[in-house]
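Sample intake sheet
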Amino acid sequence: MPWKESNKVTERMQFITRYQAGERISDLSKEFGISRQTGHALIKRFEEFGPDALKDRSSRPAVSPNRTARAKVDRILALRNEHPTWGPKKIKRRLEDVEPGIRWPAASTVGVILADAGLTESRKPRRAATPNVSSELRETTKPNELWCIDYKGQFRLGNRKYCYPLTVTDHFSRYLIGCEALENTRTEGAMTTFWDLFDRFGIPQAIRSDNGAPFASTGRLGLSRLSVAFMRLGIQLERIEPGKPQQNGRHERMHLTLKQDTTRPPAHGILAQQQKFDAFTSTFNEKRPHEALDMKTPAGLYAASTKILPKELPALEYPLHDRTVLVRSNGCFRLPKSGSIYLGVAFTDQQVGLREVETGTWLISFMELDVAYLDTETMKVIDLPN
């Protein structure tokens, strides 16, 4: 089957990322259910146009026979000039009232006409539109203030299968909390690993990662299912800037030692490789002195978090919103008489709040974040301005 309809951009980004990491196009094309020709075409588009190439190309014709007549445009602009504070919905309604015999364009089209004429300003969200502030990476003074996470570059085992080590360290003590040999970078394996670590070591205050899957996505606010799950546990998100691995330098230096000690040569299979990782973890934490720690070991400075993993999370509540809806596994939620509305698979199984900010325009929020606007006339979800 070709690209999954639920999140084509994420699927394509995973394809590109793994190709750039050295996997063969033939193997990737078979796994993702596409032809090799499609794979080559996607890579070529990405190299020429960057991340925008991963989005579906517009089917909109260059010339539209249904384009709004000039006379209607002039009438819309004239009414706006008479009432500078009126928005698209008010303008549309007034035109229908005074000239009911004319078929006026949708409010969204009126908004485009006003924007093209320079008569609108972008709305500003009540708070930051993104949960991660890469320019404000924190320093730490005690364990569990910040965990650093990443995948050490994949490598082939003796049986020619790939291994993807998922690593987690405590920023303050440099304690290697986990090093798990995984068969891929998919969300399910990462989530299982993290929840096992949370059960053993407690919950950190914040987690720092890069912008790759499954820690982030190309969807709304850069959130992924994993990062949303972190947020539900009260974990703050930090992201390093793209192309700046030095912002996670302590973790990267650990990766260098890990590679030297456990992958030259690699084990034959995934279980044997995990044994090598476990032995390395024990030595790294308990026996190996660290110059940056005044020759102490990480185990001498680390203690598990006092915030334990809850057995069950309470339902999200939005007392200042008009309604609360559940996002289903396809990334959609439903409103009465409106059908399915797509928000994003990152919010799967999560409750979001909706609040009407003006007639026909609803603000969608997740926890403390404003995520997007919903235009109930067109039933389209509109991203917040950056």
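Comment: The radius of gyration is 25 Å. The longest strand covers residues 162-170.
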